[in-house]
Amino acid sequence: MINILLSGCNGKMGKTITECAKNFDNLSIVCGTDVNTTAGEYPVYSSPADVKEKVDVIIDFSHPSALTGILDYAVRTNTPAVICTTGLDEAQKKEIADASKEVAIFFSANMSLGVNLIAELARKATAVLGNQFDIEIVEAHHNQKIDAPSGTALMLADEISEEFENAPKYEFDRHSKRAKRTKNEIGLHAVRGGTIVGEHEIIFAGQDEVIKISHSAMSKQIFANGSLNAASFMAGKEPGMYSMKDIVASM
User: Which end of the chain has fewer CB atoms at under 10 Å, N or C?
Assistant: First the structure.
């Protein structure tokens, strides 16, 4: 049995992960951390430093402010960590990279297998279409999401950018200037409203034709199951940086 510490356990995603974990015979959430320390099916602590249970893998689906404490615990106890929290800045991403030199870290902006598949498809499309098509990314999420554009939209843009010799500029705010669209850019657009779980569309707009690659999440369960599959994959892994690509490659 793989014992899991769930960071952000009392949040919406944390509660979804707790329910989904019941469908995994090889996984058990033995404790959690959260600013809300109300205990339910397992003990909940305000800090990883207070955890008493034996833990094999950490799943972090919390808030960027909790990252340092999670990584400190992971390194100190040599416990692999699955980092699912979005909205991390560049300094925090460097923290993750530094920690991966000492302990196994799984890091992905999106835990859905489908989203990671469309990232590969978009990259292949870019390699074929090159500079002949303009590329725009549109994402939509619920009205409670804090960061914009989403971490997934940025992940998709990064994947596409790797196919260009000269990295394109990310354009977030066209209304503030009056100028034609340049070829060397990727537009990113965020929509926030209602209870939209997550939608991402990559638009390749060319001369007299448009190609679209899209993904729609119907529930948070796909992200919960993705994080649990990652936890199962990461148990016992050697130090290093891992991602959804490693899981796909292992299938």
Answer: C
